Amino acid sequence: MHINELKGLTKSQYLSIRKTLRSKRLWTRDFGRTTSVLEDRQALRNKIAKMSEGGKIAVYEWGRDCDMCESDSVSLIPASVMAYERFENNVYDGAEGPTNVHIMWMKDALEFEPSFRDRIAEAWDNGNTLAHVV
């Protein structure tokens, strides 16, 4: 299945297709790849083992909601595939717009400064009164 075939689906239709494909090990994180879910999980397990410290991994999360507010943050979670996939699924299931989640190095997480931007308010402050038109 190609990503273009998923356009126009309702959230429940999308989740149903994702569940079916996951059960048959055909769902991948990136539609351009031809690896199986098991290969993806093994690669994730290796990445977690490489990047964990003290039984934890740092996970970066960026997102923009439907009101054009952007934020990013870092969370520390247990260093396991199950914990990461649970975290990732919770983020994507609750997303209102573009979202990205990935594991980052612990040293980078310690230096990380979370941010928040309200793009519509910024545009309004800059004199663009049509900022709400997307």
Describe the main β-sheet briefly.
Answer: 4 strands, antiparallel
Order of helices and strands: HHEEHEHEH
Mean pLDDT: 82
Count of distinct strands = 4
Uncertain regions spanning at least 5 consecutive residues: none
Helix percentage = 40-55%
Which value, in Å, is the CA radius of gyration? Answer: 18 Å
Structural class: alpha+beta
Tell me the number of helical segments per DSSP (H or I, 4 or more residues long). Answer: 5
Q: What does this protein structure show overall?
A:
The protein is an alpha+beta fold and about 130 residues long. It has a domain of about 80 residues. It is about 40% helix and about 20% strand. It has five helices and four strands. Strands 3-1-2-4 form a four-stranded antiparallel beta sheet. A hairpin with a 4-residue loop joins strand 1 and strand 2. The longest helix has 15 residues. The chain is flat. About 5% of the residues are buried.
Concise summary:
With 134 residues, the protein is α+β, with helices and mostly antiparallel strands. It has five helices and four strands; from the N terminus they run H-H-E-E-H-E-H-E-H.
Break the fold down into its secondary structure elements and pairings:
Elements: H1 11-23, H2 37-51, E1 56-64, E2 69-78, H3 81-93, E3 99-104, H4 106-111, E4 115-118, H5 119-125
Antiparallel strand pairs: 1-2, 1-3, 2-4
What descriptors fit this protein?
alpha+beta, four-stranded antiparallel beta sheet, 4 strands
